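R.M. (postdoc): so does anyone remember the format we settled on? I'll just put the structure tokens first.
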């Protein structure tokens, strides 16, 4: 059974930083593409970042590029998201996910997601 368990969310002031973690189990983590996605109140899922493996290029959504950094530790089956320069518009529930794609209506759907961790950015 695939399990993805996120942690590390919380409240932070604008400009602050948080590091999210995701513990993965139930599948072969090494070489498997992993993503972070988020969902703001009243909105659909938004892709944040993806990583295939540690020695391959990472990808970021335009709203977070230059501020967020995704990484993974294959030895520990862990996925991370370092978030710097946080803005109020980054407020959302963040999910660790795999097998994400866009449906015919350009809606992001992910076959596997964790329970999510809340990130709130406000003063």
């Amino acid at each position: 059974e695939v399990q993805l368990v996120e942690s590390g969310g919380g409240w932070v002031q604008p400009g602050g930083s948080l590091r999210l973690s995701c513990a993965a189990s139930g599948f072969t983590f090494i070489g498997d593409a992993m993503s972070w996605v988020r969902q703001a109140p009243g909105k659909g899922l938004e892709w944040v970042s993806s990583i295939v493996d540690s020695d391959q290029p990472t990808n970021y959504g335009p709203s977070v590029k230059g501020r967020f950094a995704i990484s993974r530790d294959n030895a520990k089956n862990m996925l991370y998201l370092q978030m710097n320069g946080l803005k109020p518009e980054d407020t959302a529930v963040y999910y660790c996910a795999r097998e994400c794609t866009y449906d015919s209506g350009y809606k992001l759907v992910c076959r596997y997601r964790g329970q999510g961790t809340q990130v709130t950015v406000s003063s």
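R.M.: ...and that's the designed sequence above, right after the tokens. Also worth knowing: The mean pLDDT is 95. The first strand starts at residue 3 and ends at 7.
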